């Protein structure tokens, strides 16, 4: 094949693959506060406009800055078929609904809080449209780069709760004694 034709085909392929979409990747809430030992879930959502039809997704989770929590499981939306390419990865089931023009929960991340402290959970998927990011039927893609903060509160010891209850009982008893003296 002619060298110029090869260069033009290469340039056309690169321009198609580098076309990016503008879907909003939603991570409500941005801050999560839980008690040590609690389990909690975070929904990962995408907001698509009418011109975008989602065909797949992939992103990795980084818990390096959140060593006090552990990921228990990832529940993909029923209309996604799991893929092995990333921590959270799936392709839209062709027999499923057309995923466009609405807000969709694409995954639920289930965690358990360990020791008290705080940290950040990062979700990233940015490799130029190959396996990581959000993918659309027009061969466009969008990188994923978002995070949320987790604060794990210590669980009050039962002795502390008992002491607080005893103090409250003393306050009520003193009030009762004062009323009887007056």
Shape: elongated
Low-confidence stretches: 1-19
What is the CATH class designation? Mainly Beta
Assembly type of the shown chains?
single chain
Give your account of this protein's structure.
There is one protein chain. The protein is an alpha+beta fold and 182 residues long. It has a single domain (24-181), classed as Immunoglobulin-like, CATH 2.60.40.680. 21% of the residues lie in helices and 43% in strands. The protein has 2 helices and 12 strands; from the N terminus they run αββββββββββββα. It has helices spanning 3-17, 158-181; strands spanning 24-26, 31-35, 39-47, 54-62, 69-76, 80-82, 88-92, 103-113, 117-125, 133-136, 141-142, 144-153. Strands 2, 4, 6, 7, 9, 10, 11 and 12 form an 8-stranded mixed sheet that branches. Strands 1-3-8-5 form a 4-stranded antiparallel sheet, with no helix packed on it. A hairpin with a 4-residue loop joins β10 (133-136) and β11. The protein starts with a helix and ends with a helix. Mean pLDDT is 79; it is low at 1-19.
In short:
With 182 residues, the protein is α+β, with helices and mostly antiparallel strands. Helix content is 21%, strand content 43%.
